[in-house]
TrEMBL record:
Cofactor: Mg(2+)
GO MF entry, a single one: protein serine/threonine kinase activity
Its EC number(s): 2.7.11.1
Keyword terms of this UniProt record: ATP-binding, Calcium, Coiled coil, Kinase, Metal-binding, Nucleotide-binding, Repeat, Serine/threonine-protein kinase, Transferase
UniProt keyword Heme present: no
Subunit record text: Monomer.
Origin species: Blepharisma stoltei
Protein name per the record: non-specific serine/threonine protein kinase
Keyword presence, Isomerase: no
Domain Protein kinase: 45-299
Amino acid sequence: MGCSINTRMKRPQITDVPRISQVGEIQIKKDQFVQENQHRFAEVYQIGESLGSGAFGEVKICFQRDTRQKRAVKIMRKDLMKSESKRDDLEKEISILRSMDHPNIVRLYEFFEDQKRIYIVMEHCAGGELFDEIIKRKNFQEVHAAQIMYQLFSAVAYLHSHHVIHRDLKPENILLEESNDTLNIKLIDFGTAVMSNNKIKDAMGTAYYIAPEVLSGQYSEKCDMWSCGVILYILLSGRPPFDGRDDSEIVNKAQIGKFDIIDDPWGRISNEAKNLITGLLCKAESRLSASQCLQHPWITSRAHRPIATEEIIQVVMRNLTTFHNSNKLRDAVNTFIASQCISMQDTRLLREVFRSMDKNGDGKLSREELMEQYVWSLGEADAEIEVNRIMEEVDADHNGYIDYTEFLKATLDMKKLLSSDNLKQAFRMFDRDGSGSISAAELKKILEGGVISDDKVWDDLIVQADQNGDGEIDLQEFQDVILSKV
């Protein structure tokens, strides 16, 4: 049944790994809770209708049996992945997705493996593919196209800052969150993504969207920006910039690099939009980066969506101000629930506030961006004190930024976050053997996070909640310590 995905993941050498010797040194990260579930998939989820199929399996709707949460599952047949490289690609996809924490990148929840299949459980987006919306609409108004492209540029900028190249950006790999909302997107399908700081050699991608340099056998993350240019062109005109009878003709035209921005409908489209397209569908050395696109006049003048009211922003700022991270177990539970249990609908307004505070669109909040928000109401001196405190309390992984999940756990309504159902789900996650209590070994397995630690660290964490002194945490003790400051 196995744990072969986990055990084959590459781990750092012991000499490179830090050591934690006290509870305060534990770092809480979202990806610690994205793990292989040791139960059978059918015990945890009920399968629903099919959403699509591919070379190695299919994607289906599924429902978590305990909570009835609706999710999507990518089911991969192991007999079709006979080569070592295919298995490595799947492990790489899981590894990349579990580390992503951006509001426009699909969330990975957990994965399963049995003798025949591997199951990757992710967010379900009810709106379907952007591709289908393009077919239905023919083309988008500039303001709507800008709002979609802002989110795509933000997701890609985030990927590139983490040295991840997607390599297959296309409307089929962009999902719409809701069926009645065509302007909130999620980037999916990291099966061809790669982590690299260097030039890549192996050709990868889809003919309509593939950058010319990919075919020459040496390229960088700028290949994703060419794909973004093609997507933008299609959103505005309803047709691809390079077309042909077959893949060979399409890529040949892309290598020549000539495309039409004169004929209908381009006469009705702004010069700023054409300028952005020209800055993307060009040679790699002069091609715009995702960060530069986020600051392009066409994006900055059209992509703003004032959904979050000033009142909501003030509530969020107060929640950030009053958030206290005084207990590692409570912080771990808050992080788990914010990343695994809260729906897209429950975070919609918070996401808009996060986006409004994220001035450069990179998918995380810097100290400077927080200062800009708080100086207006507190003045410079008090704002600096407050922002320093927020960074200390909310930045649980100490990377110098407030990541999206860290923002959610600090700003969500605590009664909603720590509902009875959510606490029970969190307890089950920590109680890995289903014994009805949480041991120090179980805490270590989930929270150690690839570092070396003293056993005393986890014993001390147990002591903070263990009221009856039996060396473990039962459900009542768990709820008491989590709710003690609410």
